[in-house]
Amino acid sequence: MKAEIVGSRKMALLLVALFCSLSFLEAQIEAGRVVYERRTNLEKRYKGIDLSRWARNADLKTPKIDMFELIYNDSSSVFRPIESDIPDERSWFTMKNTTFQNLSSNTRKQEFVFFGTSVLLEDSLRTRIWRMTESKRLIAGYNCRQAVWEANDTTRIYAWYAEELISSVGPETFNGLPGVILGLAIEDGGVVYFATEVKPYKTSIEPLAPQGKRKDWYTEESLRQLIAERFASFSSTMAPLMRDVFLW
């Protein structure tokens, strides 16, 4: 009788463990769509820069909100803006890039828009050295762990990733963590990305990558040279935008 009871308990425990395992696997999203809100504090981003020539009456006190989507699977992703039909008088204050990342081939394609002109970049994936922390937070219904990237001596980026979303991608060019990045923030809070929605979504990602003729593509090095040459006269005013091109 005792043996039967023990056996029943063991079977019950095995069934519970199996149920939990299946529930966890079901909760994992191998291909999905994440919607992000990017909040930019314009006062912080343009602190100390004379904007009288370009934006004399611009509202810098109200945070600027831009929406994006990340469509991903286990090997690639595309991050792109969600365009609005509402006119945006402050559109030039922030950049809305499209970034395609292929983890298998270690390549990325990006499209930047400078004052209405599209510029294309193709290069290897950006790599970053992450430092894991014990900090956690809930984002879009997912428990996320925090990691930190020291961009340089004065700039630190915080990322929050969800291990349930099993792809090493995130907003802009960010990658390299064991889960999709649902939150991203510069240390001073000047630019913050947070996911507002995560849903399963299966589609072919390659066709969503930026497209262009072979002659139209720059490498990161050649694009840096182009920006330095063409925007030299705007160096002080455009500094935050130019910095964001290669930071994010």
Q: In percent, how much strand structure appears in the residues?
A: 35-45%
Mean pLDDT score: 85
N- to C-terminal distance:
66 Å
Assembly level: single chain
Order of helices and strands: HEHEEEEEEEEEEEHH
List the helices and strands and how they pair.
Layout: H1 2-27, E1 32-40, H2 42-45, E2 64-72, E3 76-81, E4 98-102, E5 107-114, E6 117-124, E7 130-139, E8 142-150, E9 156-162, E10 180-186, E11 191-200, E12 217-218, H3 220-230, H4 235-247
Parallel strand pairs: 6-12
Antiparallel strand pairs: 1-2, 1-11, 2-3, 3-4, 4-5, 5-6, 7-8, 8-9, 9-10, 10-11
Explain how this protein is built.
There is one protein chain. It contains four helices and twelve strands, in the order H-E-H-E-E-E-E-E-E-E-E-E-E-E-H-H. The chain has 248 residues and is of the alpha+beta class. It folds into two domains: 1-28; 31-134 and 167-174 and 190-247, no CATH class. A hairpin with a 2-residue loop joins strand 7 (130-139) and strand 8.
